[in-house]
Structure formats: structure tokens, C-alpha cells
Amino acid sequence: MEQAQPRRILVLDGGMGTTLETLGFDVNTPLWGSELLSSDPDAIRDIHKRYLAAGADIIETATYQLTPGNLCQRLSCSEEQAAQILRVGVDVPHSATLSLARGRVALSFGPFGSTLSPGQEYGGLYPPPYGPSTSTNAFPAISGPSSPAEIEDMKGTEEESAIKALAQFHLDKLRVFALHAESWEKVEWIAFETIPVLHEVRGIRRAMTILNQELDGKYGKGDHKSDVGDTWWIKKFWIVSPFPSGQHPQSQYVVEDSSTDRPHVTVEQVLSAMVEGDDAVPNGTGINCTNPSYLPSLTKSFTSTYQSILSSQPSRSLGSNLQFVLYPDGGQVYDTISRTWSTPSASGGPETWAREVFDVAKDLEKAVTKAGEPLWDGVIVGGCCKSSFEEIRALRKLVDGAS
């Protein structure tokens, strides 16, 4: 019997925090309502089930901005209790997939900026050692005229310190799940999302490299070793960024006293940060938490840039193992200071949103390398904040209609 081909477009779920808010739960807390994993896990489980019923192939855990530290602070619990609550974040969606006999679990990891107040997912202004030593997200932060060599030296030293600090931040959270086999086995993807700066992309890749080495030592022998040689403990992961106002949040490396606006990081720089170097390369890259109106131009830039990268690397020229992951917001604008949303007067309903997003996803799915092979290894498409069950249901209909 001929084996069925894997689907080229998979449907992701929609927003969690804003959906909780719509359902009447209080999300105006530092944990955005995710403390329900401790007080009312059934409320979270019900949302996962409803997304699966709406047609999601992948559902994300409600752990985006949670860390052992902020859980301990908010709930006055021990580190071990905090770790148990985090792992409930995996148990709950996994039980939902079992009850409906469909779906896979992606472990949600927000940026370091999601733990700051106000949040820095759209700005990437991180305090040292996680970012530059002045009020910018660009390296180097230098006052006065400097030579190119001085700029590179400062950039290298300060940026490397930030990469190390951010790698440790993500590694500490990863270990909570990964060193607990029962939880780790339930995860298929790790979703590093809304990552606003390239030094955090590099920090994440380093964290995954270190983690995989640790897990090879822990699970690659003894009771947890697979009889068929399958390294089940090595998880797929994606890294996606927001593009507020259609631009990457990070500024270019510039001298601090420049009188002109700093240009933003380019898509070429984003993809280079994803795939160059010796650290673990993500299985997916793309865009989240961005207004859908910016998607056509942004995804065309991703496609053309990645075509150029592959054509310049003969070893990868026949295709890519990168999937494109796309989950924009519902079209509203979020104010990180007031923590409120504004709705554009011209916004459409779920079907309009789904059509706009699906058309972009379909173009990504059709993209090819210069050798004529599929450029992306597949497309994962869903919604972020202010998208919910109806948007995902409408998106599922379009995906099914095109297959």
C-alpha cells in the first residue's frame, strides 16, 4: 500500500490569553491568567479541546511567559511546586489530544522580554546582561566617534555576554520539562515565539545545543534509550519574531550619537541568525503576533532571501528542512503600557481574517528553490492574540478545501 504523503500545511491554534479574557477570566496579572494551570486547569484544558475541535493540528501550551521564578513570586510557592505547575502546562493539552484522538503539543516559550514590565516582545529593550548597556536594543551602544575595530570589539564582548545570559534564561526553563521524561515525551515541538532581537535567537540556539548534549547523556543510555535507535528526546523547535509596523523590532548596529533613525534588522539578517554557525538550527522560522496586512510583503522577502541563501550553499541547494511558521494576530493593536487592544474600524470577521492568512500560507507552500524543489519543508499556520476558535475553524475549512 502506498504511504500517504504528509500534509504540507498544518493548522496551529489561536490565542490563549485573549481567549481566556473573552471567556470572562481575569488576565490582567503578571502571568496573563496562566496561573489557572494551578487554580483551574480544566479551564485551560477546555480551550485546548475547543481549538482541536475547531481543526487545529497543533496546540500550544499555556506557558508562554511562565518561569519558575515568576511563578514562585506570584503564587508564593517553592521552586519544585513551580516546576510541577509548569509541567501541568504540558499534561493539560496532552490529555486534550488523547480525549479527542487528534493533535500534537507545542511547548510555548516566550522571550525574556515577556517577563519584564512593561513587556518587551515588540521592543526588545533588555537590561544588561541580557541586552546593551544603554537604552537601545542595538549593539554596540557607543557615544562619540569610534573606529570600526573599536565598534566590533565592543559589539563582540557585549553581545556575547547577552547571548550567554539569554541562553541560560531559556535553558533553565527547558530543563524543567526536559529532565522530566514523562513530560518531555508528550512534547513534539518547542515554540520560541515573539523573539524580538537576534542575540536572543542566537541564545536560544545555544541553549538547544547544550540541552541536546545533556539529554543525549541522560536518555541515550539505560532505561530511556530507544530500542530502535530513535532519539525521541531531541525535539523539533521553531523560532519566530513579531514585525510591528511591518519591521523587525531590532535596530541595526549603529553608533549611539547618530542623528538619523536607525534602520531595522533585515530579513536577511534574521535568517542568517537562524541558520548560520555551529549551534542547533531550528526546524521552523517565521512570523507571529503581527498584523496580517504586513504578511504578503514580509513573507515574499523571507522566500526570496531564503532562495538566495540556499542557492549560495550547494549542500542545501536541493531543498530545505525549515518549515515556515505563520501565526499573526487578529488585526488589533496592543499597547504594552496600558495592556489594552484597539480594533481598527475596517477589520473584518473570522472568514476575512482566515482568507487573508491562508492566501499567504498557500504562497509559502508553493514556493520553490531555484532547482525547483519545495523551498519550505511545510507551513504551519494559525493565529496569535485576538484570534480564537472561529478564526481557526475558518482557516481549517480553507486548508481542507485546498488539499
Automatic annotation (TrEMBL):
- Pfam families attached here? S-methyl_trans
Checking SUPFAM superfamilies in the record gives: Homocysteine S-methyltransferase (SSF82282)
Q: Which PROSITE patterns match?
A: HCY
Domain Hcy-binding: start-end pairs: 1-399
UniProt keywords (A-Z) are: Metal-binding, Methyltransferase, Transferase, Zinc
Names of required cofactors = Zn(2+)
- Which InterPro entries does the record match to this protein? HCY_dom, HCY_dom_sf, Hcy_S-methyltransferase
Entry superkingdom = Eukaryota
Annotated residues that bind Zn(2+) are located at C289, C384, C385
Give the molecular function GO annotations. Answer: S-adenosylmethionine-homocysteine S-methyltransferase activity; zinc ion binding
The alphabetized list of GO BP terms reads: methionine biosynthetic process; methylation; S-methylmethionine cycle
What name does this protein carry?
Hcy-binding domain-containing protein
